[in-house]
TrEMBL record:
This is DUF5787 family protein. It comes from the Archaea.
Length: 344
């Protein structure tokens, strides 16, 4: 299977490489890797989280599912002693009924204590919520970094650098015998690092070191920019983003990564198709027998013309306990994802 010619495969290889080889700034950090996460406006391909190992282990108290923004508001502010929730929590900036929903959800997940005092709901925390992410690194995967790819990537990286939501921004490109042309680098912001990765051997070389971005300072979100034509004198539109808003967004992204990791690619594919396989290339990668190659997540859907559901016999006979190869694929990847999440 040629690993370098398809962006999706390159992305999975990059995640695998990062999981095993990423050198965190603090030597004792635990590295967690996820893919395809970000904000409403910007999604990163590969995301590396450098985590405080004790705080990450403590995070396991709250279960494997993410805490969304409503839950984070409750859990992070829950008092040590019983208190009426409206007096204990800061005003959320949205209606209190959503807070009540989050309290009920937290109670159902056993991560918050609740009781009734008349018609008031009182809450008490079970554990403090510790900040478990030290640094976030975003990596854009561009196996074929030619001039046109560099041109389209440039504005996206400028957006990331101006906002400074991640501590470092990188581009990973496929390693070839040719050097990355300096002219290509000119199209990319100097703050972005360039990694040259051999998708087959997983050898990597830093072509350009990134600068650390100011995540604790206000960021600039670029909303609109002039198209750059010679007669275009329009101004760019942008807005400031406060450090507090950035910190909240970083935590929400980290929580989603905690839940999903990067092996969840199978969740968006059709492992219940009879042509779906996981093949081992050191790591488990999807393979389509109908296409005789690795399929992308985009094409591996129910609308795929070659999709055929796995025969019922696979569920009832050969796979009596496990519920068919599709379920087995999911479990296999889930088990590997679990191993990356320290338990309490
Ligand atoms: S035939 Fe289509 S749906 Fe089935 S595994 Fe291949 S790409 Fe996925």
């Amino acid at each position: 299977m040629a690993l370098s010619d398809r962006e999706f495969l390159f992305e999975l290889r990059c995640c695998w490489w990062a999981e095993r080889n990423w050198q965190p700034a603090r030597a004792d950090s635990t590295v967690l890797v996820a893919r395809q996460l970000g904000t409403k406006r910007r999604r990163w391909d590969t995301i590396v989280f450098e985590c405080d190992p004790d705080a990450l282990a403590h995070r396991a108290n709250f279960g494997p599912e993410r805490l969304d923004s409503d839950l984070l508001h409750v859990i992070r502010n829950a008092p040590v002693e019983w208190a009426y929730y409206r007096e204990a929590l800061p005003h959320p900036g949205y209606p209190w009924r959503y807070v009540r929903d989050a309290i009920h959800e937290a109670d159902g997940r056993d991560i918050l204590e609740t009781r009734r005092a008349g018609n008031r709901i009182e809450i008490r925390r079970r554990w403090p919520y510790r900040e478990w992410v030290d640094r976030i690194i975003s990596i854009e995967n561009k196996p074929d970094l030619d001039a046109s790819a560099a041109r389209s990537l440039g504005p996206q990286l400028e957006y990331d650098v101006a906002l400074a939501l991640a501590d470092e921004v990188w581009v990973a490109t496929n390693r070839t015998d040719e050097r990355v042309q300096p002219a290509l680098l000119e199209g990319l912001p100097v703050q972005a690092g360039i990694l040259s990765l051999d998708a087959e051997s997983l050898e990597a070389e830093t072509v350009w070191h990134p600068r650390t971005l100011a995540v604790d300072e206000p960021g600039t979100r670029i909303l609109e920019r002039p198209d750059g034509g010679s007669h275009d004198a329009s101004a760019a539109r942008f807005e400031y983003v406060s450090p507090a808003a950035k910190a909240r967004r970083r935590l929400e992204i980290a929580e989603r990564a905690y839940e999903r990791g990067w092996r969840s690619f199978v969740d968006t594919m059709r492992p219940d198709c009879r042509h779906f396989e996981l093949r081992s290339q050191g790591q488990l990668l999807p393979f389509c027998r109908a296409k005789s190659r690795c399929q992308t997540a985009r094409e591996c859907r129910g609308s795929c013309p070659a999709f055929e559901p796995e025969p019922p016999a696979w569920r009832t006979k050969e796979w009596p306990i496990e519920g068919g190869p599709g379920k087995r694929c999911r479990r296999l990847l889930e088990a590997r994802r679990e191993r990356r999440r320290p338990r309490r």
